[in-house]
Amino acid sequence: MRAACAIPFVATALLGGCASTSAFTARPAAEARTGSCEQRTAEVFAITGEIDAELSRCVRETFAGSTRELVLDSKGGSVEAALDIAEILEGRGLTMRVEGQCNSSCANYFLPLARQIEFSPRSIVLLHGSIDPWTIARFRSRKSEFMTLQARNGRSVEEAEIAFAASMARTETTATRQAEFAQRHHVAPGWLLYRTPGSDDVPGLDPEPTRSRAILVEERMMRSCLPEVEIAPYQAALERRWLRSYRRLGLLWERIAPSGQTVCRPL
Fold first, then answer.
1. Which of 62, 111, 154, 185 is least surrounded by Cβ atoms within 10 Å, i.e. has the fewest?
2. Contact 204/190 with Cβ under 8 angstroms?
3. Which residues lie across from 70 on neighbouring strands?
């Protein structure tokens, strides 16, 4: 099952993630790509838009220690930046409220840190994968394509070799950070759609969902994947808003599969 999105083989794109591109976004795409953060009150902090280095800097400089609630509306973005932000959020026991969407890196690295997760009526959570051994092996196996692209951009063979080695090193370093994060916080492999080389199956999920670009996480799956987090009921809202027949067809058109009966296997 290839649940992750079609991640480009260039390592910088791997590390940048691939935020969901869906007709079911909460705001126009151009606006949603602009990341921002805000300390709304002494206890409420908000993260909105694309996760990137600038957003990471904003959180680092703005987040108050008195924060008790984190409001999220993000299509995802950089794995590195998300892990940087996650380090700031770790151990705080925050209530996280999804207002709109929490997809990709937002779901992978923020939601597992919550004490409690709440949802506005139109919220969605989408997963498409992570930097796993399958992804690293795929990038390594496509070195010739990387080299060809570098040559087209005017780089010499020596320069391209150096760029490839640097990209591999950066990717493997980020993969190690992700693995350490998952171990520290008991994140189920199924939540990260974790795969091993040689197969695009996700052994941490049972049963595996329909082949897709992304998975819309229903309540059953979230509860099984994040058992240490208190999940406010939200399945009824999903049924009303997203899983009616005509909207379900829209999801399938975008190659987004509802998780249905899929659950994470225990660690």
1. 154
2. yes
3. 45, 96
Buried b (16+ CB within 10 A) or exposed e, 141-179: eeeeebbeebeeeeeeeeebeebbeebbeebeebbebbb
Q: 51 Cβ partners below 8 Å, 6+ apart?
A: 17, 35, 74, 76, 77, 78, 81, 82, 85, 104, 105, 106
Phi, psi of 259 (to 5 degrees): -70, -25
Distance CA 121, CA 230 (A): 18
Residue-wise pLDDT tens for the chain (267 aa)?
444 433 333 344 445 554 433 434 334 333 445 799 999 999 999 999 999 999 999 999 999 999 999 999 999 999 999 999 999 999 999 999 999 999 999 999 999 999 999 999 999 999 999 999 999 999 999 999 999 999 999 999 999 999 999 999 999 999 999 999 999 999 999 999 999 998 889 999 999 888 889 999 999 999 999 999 999 999 999 999 999 888 889 998 999 999 999 999 977
CA distance 62 to 47: 11
Planar angle of CA 133, 139, 140, nearest 5 degrees: 90
Length of the chain: 267
The answer to whether 33 and 158 are in contact (CB under 8 A) is: no
Other beta carbons within 10 Å of 83? 19
Task: Report yes or no on whether pTM surpasses 0.85.
Answer: yes
> What does DSSP assign to residue 216?
E
